[in-house]
Amino acid sequence: MRTVIIEDELLAAKDLQKLIQQLDSTIEVVAILPGLAAARDWFSKQPEPDLLFMDIQLSDGVSFELFTHVKLECPVIFTTAYNEYAIQAFKVNSIDYLLKPIDRTELKVALEKFKKIKQINQPFDLQSHIQSLLQDLTSAQPAKKYKERFMAHYKNTLVPVPAERIAYFIKDELIYLVTYDNQKMIADFHTMDEVEQQLNPAQFFRANRQYIIHLNSVDHIRHGFNGKIIVKLRSPLFNELDISREKAAAFKDWIN
Fold first, then answer.
1. How far apart are CA 39 and CA 70, in angstroms?
2. What is the pLDDT at residue 174?
């Protein structure tokens, strides 16, 4: 049985792949796709799988957008960090979901449900499910608001820093924010995932495990080895950082 994982965090995708194959060795993960652009390209050339795992919030958009470009009939198991109202929408519409971080037992239940549907040859009208789900999500969830300022520790004080002043966040044991005038302050967060969830994805990009960068901090980019992109930040920052091959397409879409 063939399955595809659409997930922009490679480690999360690899962990999910490992769990799937531990639970059922007959399931073959034929592709791990890092975002919408990669998914559109892959599905334009390959037959659809028997089952699709799909993260909802991707680095280059919301995964539902894929269905406006590609006609898919296979069942989908979504992975999501949405709140309880959105999760209820999944339940009502009989679409499986896994709340991050992925739980082994919940994954097992989702796979068993999929197998039952497959065994009885029950039709799965994916397009109507998606349309109904989108309506429920729209009514259930207000538009997401992103943080406009962040508290940071600087010279024994706690200061508010507007988001537009932040050139990038960096994890170096602690998590720091760095302003455009190159002031480095300790951010009031424990993980980069927490930071990412508070940022407007139109303005900030998760370049790798260490950096989240602001659009205006980019001076120029160049191509590196093995499909990587090298990003040079503008003066007086001067940092260089790598965008992995898996995130290169999403980064190009974002920067454009």
1. 9
2. 93
Smallest CA-to-CA distance from 78 within 70, 68, 87, 69 is with 87
Cα–Cα distance measured from residue 223 to residue 230, given in angstroms and rounded to the nearest whole number: 6
Residue type, 213: I
Sequence-ordered list of residues with C-beta below 8 angstroms from that of 85, at least 6 positions apart, any chain: 140, 141
Q: What is the pLDDT of residues 121-172, one digit of tens each?
A: 655 555 565 666 556 555 555 556 788 899 999 888 999 999 999 999 999 9
Using the 8-state DSSP alphabet, how is residue 32 labeled? E
Q: Which of 178, 243, 248, 161 is nearest to 216 (CA)?
A: 178
At residue 85, the pLDDT reads: 43
pTM of the model: 0.50
Q: Where in the chain is the domain with CATH 2.40.50.1020?
A: 150-255
Residue ranges, CATH 3.40.50.2300, the chain: 2-140
Question: What is the H or E stretch that residue 3 is in?
Answer: strand 2-6
Give the C-alpha separation, 70 to 227, whole Å: 26
Looking at residue 121, what is its pLDDT?
A: 63
Pick the CATH number of 2-140 from 3.30.70.1660, 3.30.70.260, 3.40.50.2300, 3.80.10.10: 3.40.50.2300
Cis peptide bond N-terminal to 101, omega within 30 = yes
- In CATH, what number does 150-255 get? 2.40.50.1020
Residue segments in the chain with a per-residue pLDDT below the cut of 50: 85, 89, 92-94
Beta-carbon count within 10 A of 222 CB: 10
SS3 (DSSP) at 36: helix
How much is the pLDDT for 256? 81
Q: Is 215 helix (H, G, I), strand (E, B) or coil?
A: helix
